[in-house]
Amino acid sequence: MSQPTIETLRTTMELAYTWDYTSQVRSLRDLYTKSKDLQWDGAKDLPWHLDVDPEGPRFPDAVVPIYGSDIWHRMTRAEQRRTKIEVSSWMLSQFLHGEQGALLATSQLVTCVTTPDAKLYAATQVMDEARHVEVYERYLREKMNLTYPVTPTLKSLLDVILTDGRWDMKYLGMQIMVEGLALAAFGVIRATTDEPLIRELTAAVIRDEARHVAFGVLSLDNVFREMPANELRDREDFVIESSRLMRDRFLAPEVWAKMGLPVEECCAYALECPLMQQFRCMLFSKIVPNLKRLGLLTDRVRPALQALGVLEFEHVDPDLELSLLSEAPPAFADAAE
Ligand SMILES: [Fe+2]
Ligand SMILES: [Fe+2]
Fold first, then answer.
1. How many angstroms separate the alpha carbon of residue 77 from the centre of ligand 1?
2. Ligand 2 centre and the CA of 155: distance in Å?
3. In whole angstroms, what is the distance from residue 187 CA to residue 180 CA?
């Protein structure tokens, strides 16, 4: 499982100075103001003094992708518990690596976007992502003592987003797809665990991620609707391919390999079982309405998402998401001790 500690990729993109500093996009300037008001400190504002059950955060058995399979039923209760710890650590590790991807992608946005409002807002998102890297890394190291390397499907997606020089592809890949999925996944985590530290951590991250998704939606407004057909085709292909990578992102092959379980059989079960299918649909519940809003749920994209089994929630109102933005800042009652 060893992984080189530093990996480099070559990227090229345009750098944009904006010599006119006056505000040009009011909605992004407002988002920047809101973001400054809602900053928090990952070290001081979360209840790190709380002990976490040595068996890991308490998630229901159903978070294990092979829950309900013959392999699962043949395990002893102790083996099932061990599997759940491994899956929990694997899943949180992928969020950690996704946060690093967001940190890098958003720092690129600071460089390449062409309005002062987007540059200032993106800079606050860079700080948000640094905080997210900080809190997930600390949780995994201090409370679980177990961190997994990045899974290949997530890594491929991050590589594509980070090496594509086009600014709209960075927003589409990161703010709409990766962060849209994270927002839904964090919602599931928060709803299904009663471990207080991960609940508070996740709630605080969700409030930030809702702004990040809004940043993408506001920045891409009308971009795809006005795009020439040949260029739009590239974006459609990207949505289809990244959806496939994200659908396969939760198969956890590294866990099965580590535990000596049949990897292909476990992944095949995770792809087929109705509970996981439902979970994947839920993961796309923020993405699909936003793709529709941006004019990307086209005649090519819709059937592809349907075939992947992730096209529910098409008719959810994406504005409901933006309403999260008006929530009060996190109430860290007795957090700092
Ligand atoms: Fe984040
Ligand atoms: Fe984010």
1. 34
2. 16
3. 11
Give tens-digit pLDDT for 289-331. 999 999 999 999 999 999 998 887 776 665 554 444 444 434 3
Structure tokens at 68: 């309900």
Ligand nearest to the CA of 176: 2
Q: Which ligand is nearest to the CA of 97?
A: 1
Angle at CA of residue 216, ends 147 and 135, nearest 5°: 25
Nearest-ligand number for the alpha carbon of 105:
2
User: How many alpha carbons fall within 13 Å on the CB side of residue 143?
Assistant: 26
The CA 132 to ligand 2 mean position distance, Å, reads: 8
Domains and CATH numbers, the chain: 61-326 (1.10.620.20)
Q: How far is the CA of 334 from the centre of ligand 1 (A)?
A: 24
User: Tens of pLDDT along 245-293?
Assistant: 998 888 999 999 999 999 999 999 999 988 888 888 889 999 999 999 9
